[in-house]
Design brief:
401 residues, alpha/beta, disordered N terminus, DNA recombination, coiled coil, DNA_recombination_RmuC, DNA recombination protein RmuC homolog
Length: 401
């Protein structure tokens, strides 16, 4: 049999006036294949678009969830911050109130001390004025002392002024009468039911003035002997009249109203001073009497304090209780501050972590890797899987830690 020759241009059959050849079938088949390829490529693109949309939706959902968590943590942090601010405000208000009360008490005490200081300064000014007035009256002191009655009144007034200025009312009596009928110039009551102290202000000054006015040594010696005799007689009178056993102290004071006379008596008439000491009579000047009055005042104050010792002890016990409570409250306040500081440190750590987490979320990077080269063997069956790998998203987190 002879082979049949086939040609694409040879018509296979007649379709109306148009002859149908084999070339037409080949062309139609090629067109059909191309159309199928185009449709497959469109489906692959649609699948890739769907996958990308799903990935973007999942990222948006994760981002929304993260934003919700951040908002919830921000609300919690805001609530804790508000509670902390309220607690700190209450504690600061309490401390401010206590500090204000303490400052008010200190201010009140300061004003009271200033008032007392002003009173003492007023007393000092008054004493200074008295000293200036006495300095002005020194010129007439000689004429005052020349008269016995005037001299006695002057010595009595000086002594009464010193005693009345140094002792409280009721601690002394002027011109008191003793059991033997004698009337000393002043009697000072002693504490603890002790006998009172007697003070005599009548100093024999006639012989002293005669001794100072003597023009010759012989007359000065005679005046000195007369002064010594008068002093001894007056000392014996004081010891005999005012030193009563069980009724008065065993010692009495002889007041000399002049510091210069007191110094000269101790310097030139030592025997008279020794005899006075043996008879328990002490010669005192205004300064020594003032010092003695201050000592007696201290004794009286000590006696009053001893009488009120139980009250003072009770106040001290209550003061110690208050101090103990104050120490306990201060320690509690210190513990509260320590806990508050710990909470603040933990809040700062959480805030720092949130800041770093936010930075990590902000640094998220969406990258599309390049498509690898396809071989001719993989074009058919591996086209869809390759397209899927091409459409995958790569998440890159930049960790700043």
């Amino acid at each position: 049999m002879e082979p049949v020759a086939f040609s694409f241009d040879q018509p296979l059959f007649q379709l109306g006036a148009l002859p149908i050849t084999a070339g037409y079938f080949v062309t139609a088949a090629a067109l059909l294949i191309a159309l199928l390829a185009i449709m497959a490529a469109g489906r692959a693109r649609a699948l890739r678009a769907d996958e990308r949309a799903e990935q973007i939706a999942s990222l948006l959902a994760a981002q929304t969830e993260m934003q919700g968590r951040i908002a919830a943590m921000a609300d919690v942090f805001g609530a804790r911050q508000a509670e902390l601010n309220q607690s700190l405000s209450q504690r600061i208000d309490g401390m401010t109130h206590r500090i204000g009360a303490s400052i008010s008490e200190q201010t009140k005490a300061t004003h009271e001390n200033l008032r007392r200081l002003q009173e003492r300064l007023a007393v000092i000014d008054s004493a200074q004025n008295n000293i200036q007035a006495l300095a002005k009256d020194m010129a007439g002191l000689q004429s005052i002392l020349s008269n016995k009655q005037t001299r006695g009144a002057f010595g009595q007034s000086r002594m009464e002024a010193i005693v009345a200025d140094g002792l409280p009312i009721g601690a002394y009596i002027f011109q008191a009468t003793l059991s033997n009928g004698a009337r000393p110039d002043c009697v000072i009551r002693m504490p603890n039911d002790q006998p009172p102290l007697v003070i005599d202000a009548k100093f024999p000054l006639e012989a002293w003035n005669a001794m100072r006015d003597a023009e010759s040594a012989e007359r000065r010696q005679q005046a000195a002997q007369a002064f010594r005799r008068d002093m001894e007689v007056h000392i014996r009178d004081i010891a005999g009249k005012y030193l009563l056993s069980g009724e008065t102290q065993e010692t009495a004071f002889l007041f000399v109203p002049s510091e210069s006379i007191f110094a000269e008596v101790h310097e030139h008439f030592e025997t008279v001073v020794q005899k006075a000491h043996r008879q328990r009579v002490v010669i005192v000047s205004p300064s020594l009497l003032l010092l003695s009055i201050q000592v007696i005042q201290a004794i009286l104050k000590d006696a009053r304090m001893r009488e009120q010792a139980h009250l003072i002890q009770g106040e001290v016990v209550r003061l110690m209780e208050d101090l103990s409570r104050l120490d306990e409250r201060v320690r509690k306040l210190q513990g509260h501050f320590a806990l508050t500081q710990k909470d603040i440190d933990e809040i700062l750590i959480s805030s720092d972590k949130l800041t770093r987490r936010g930075a990590k979320i902000e640094a998220l990077d969406l990258e599309t890797p390049p498509a690898p080269a396809r071989s001719s063997k993989e074009e058919g069956s591996g086209e869809r899987s390759m397209e899927g790998r091409i459409g995958q998203l790569k998440l890159r987190v930049v960790d700043e830690d």
